[in-house]
Design a protein that fits this description.
By secondary structure, the chain is of the alpha/beta class. The chain has two domains: about 15-160, Rossmann fold; about 165-270, Four Helix Bundle (Hemerythrin (Met), subunit A). About 50% of the residues lie in helices and about 10% in strands. It has eleven helices and five strands. The chain has a five-stranded parallel β-sheet with strand order 2-3-4-1-5, sandwiched between helices. The chain is elongated. The protein starts with 14 loop residues before the first strand and ends with a helix. The relative contact order is 0.11. The chain binds zinc ion. The site of zinc ion (ZN) has 8 residues, from helix 2.
Length: about 270
Amino acid sequence: MQNICFDHAGQIRHAYIVSSPVAEDAFAQAQRIAQAAVCQGRPPLPCGVCSACKKVSAGVHPDVFVIERLENDAGKKKREVVVDQVREAAADAVVLPNEAARKVYLFKDAEFMNPEAQNAALKFLEEPPNGAVIVLCVSNPGRLLSTVRSRCVEINVTAESAPEQDGTEQLAGEYLKKVAKRERFPLWQFCEDNAGLSFQEMTEFCLCVEQRVTDMLCGRADSMGMDRKQLDLLVKLMEKCIDYLKVNVNVKQVFGLLETSSIAGMKQRGT
Ligand SMILES: [Zn+2]
């Protein structure tokens, strides 16, 4: 198996996007890249057993930094990763590493970087100081600006490792078909029938719909007769659902939202 942490010349890249519907999977892959970047063992890197590799997995390596959404006073994660967090990382990268050959910055919540933060990251991504490595973890790379994406190597963690996605794909297809045809009752039926999905399945379903709609918006997939306005609305709706799931709103309620809001959006279109 080719080691995805390196390019064909065996050099580590300077910027990566790691995507997976499961945040833990994306972060695990990001940590592997961080290990490869600081490993002191023998190839193939990362060796996984040297002290540097062990420090990375324990989250205590002094040259590996994790950037995520800050918490508010109530201990809840804020909605966005803000520009100051990006600037802080970029300023830190100018300072030489402590013990490794380079520093590594893992953006755990990269899809929550607001556009200002993403724009501020452009230069940092293009030419990180002192050979630093930057890894952006996302559930859906479509949530990042194309200018950010074009500067990174994209790694999709689930592409090789998720045969169970098929059921999700099928569900997403059924949902989109009903929405595209504006079938109010069948949509309601669909939501009722699937209200028993697990949390994980529901999250994967929303991510899958979001990905497919993003593909439609970019012209990579047939839009099933839906216009841009409606597709935009669907992306926003999926983002809202995913945000709800993240704060533990139950699956049934999220389906309730799909039931009312997919239709409401169509009404706005003047039907
Ligand atoms: Zn190692």
